[in-house]
């Protein structure tokens, strides 16, 4: 598997829960032998209601965060030029998905002329579920139980897919994050039918699944996406892209060998095989 990461590059400069400078993280990718990387800092929030708890605590505002995002794009483009003959750098963003942000995501993408987006869902019913274990179980209770939270998550993910049309679908099954019985929950008919529906959309759109190694870093037994969903995706011929979801230099390239093995077993095509139809010749 060629060394390509399409979900990475969160830095302490431009993300409050990350570490290190963007330049140091890019240098680490180059040192690790990556030939193409995608920088995907989080999008700035749509209004102050979209701020995360740690951002509120730090006194951030949506306007301040948009200004910081503009600095990120400018530096990322500068780094792409500096490395152009050594490593291909794509400048993108990771989305959020909550009520009211649809047009905002589209505007950001167009205004900053981003190379691509990673479509991610971190909220259910407008409430963030992945900030902490406590927040996860609060959202589950709000939904009426874990399986209903999964169903709501995949419904909102489907809406995100149709509206944003991301090239890469970020950590498809992030909703299993604090569920020790996620395999059983995934298998419930009302959950599984939604998973298949979303995968069929991804297949039709020619998008890629982010095989996100950060799950391994956090002690999960397998990356996002889990084995049953990957098997279903492989049968549909969906492509997969490694993502370390790096939040600092130490995370760069984490779990690459495990992800390579996971994809090899299923003979899933990677971005090196067909990135051109999605991103032009950016990683070709």
Automatic annotation (TrEMBL):
Thylakoid recorded as keyword: no
The enzyme's E.C. designation: 3.1.3.15
Superkingdom: Bacteria
SUPFAM superfamilies found in the cross-reference section: PHP domain-like (SSF89550)
Ranges where the PHP domain occurs: 10-213
Keyword Ubl conjugation: no
Cellular component GO terms held in the UniProt record: cytoplasm
Pathway annotation: Amino-acid biosynthesis; L-histidine biosynthesis; L-histidine from 5-phospho-alpha-D-ribose 1-diphosphate: step 8/9
Class of this enzyme: hydrolase
An example molecular function term from Gene Ontology annotations: histidinol-phosphatase activity
Example of a GO biological process term: L-histidine biosynthetic process
UniProt-listed InterPro entries: Histidinol_P_phosphatase_HisJ, PHP_dom, Pol/histidinol_Pase-like
Sorted UniProt keywords: Amino-acid biosynthesis, Histidine biosynthesis, Hydrolase
Family: Belongs to the PHP hydrolase family. HisK subfamily.
PANTHER family for this protein: HISTIDINOL PHOSPHATASE-RELATED, HISTIDINOL-PHOSPHATASE
Protein name: Histidinol-phosphatase
Native organism: Desulfomicrobium apsheronum
Organism placement in taxonomy: Bacteria, Pseudomonadati, Thermodesulfobacteriota, Desulfovibrionia, Desulfovibrionales
């Amino acid at each position: 598997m060629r060394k390509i990461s399409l979900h990475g590059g969160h830095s302490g400069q431009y993300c409050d829960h990350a570490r290190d400078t963007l330049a140091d993280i890019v240098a680490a990718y180059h040192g690790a032998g990556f030939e193409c990387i995608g920088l995907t800092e989080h999008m700035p929030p749509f209004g102050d209601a979209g701020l995360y708890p740690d951002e509120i605590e730090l006194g951030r505002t949506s306007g301040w965060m948009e200004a910081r995002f503009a600095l990120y794009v400018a530096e990322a483009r500068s780094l792409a030029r500096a490395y152009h003959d050594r490593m291909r750098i794509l400048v993108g963003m990771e989305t959020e998905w909550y009520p009211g942000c649809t047009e905002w995501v589209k505007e950001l993408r167009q205004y900053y002329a981003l190379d691509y987006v990673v479509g991610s869902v971190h909220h259910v019913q407008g409430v963030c579920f992945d900030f902490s274990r406590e927040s996860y179980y609060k959202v589950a209770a709000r939904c009426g139980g874990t399986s209903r939270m999964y169903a709501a998550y995949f419904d909102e993910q489907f809406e995100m897919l149709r509206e944003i049309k991301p090239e890469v679908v970020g950590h498809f099954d992030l909703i299993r994050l604090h569920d020790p019985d996620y395999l059983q929950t995934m298998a419930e008919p009302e959950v599984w039918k939604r998973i298949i529906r979303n995968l069929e959309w991804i297949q039709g759109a020619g998008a890629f699944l982010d095989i996100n190694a950060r799950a391994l870093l956090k002690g999960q037994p397998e990356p996002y996406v889990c084995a049953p969903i990957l098997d279903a995706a492989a049968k549909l011929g969906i492509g997969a892209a490694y993502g370390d979801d790096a939040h600092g230099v130490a995370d760069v390239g984490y779990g690459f060998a495990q992800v390579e093995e996971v994809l090899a077993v299923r003979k899933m095509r990677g971005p090196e095989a067909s990135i051109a139809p999605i991103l032009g010749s950016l990683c070709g």
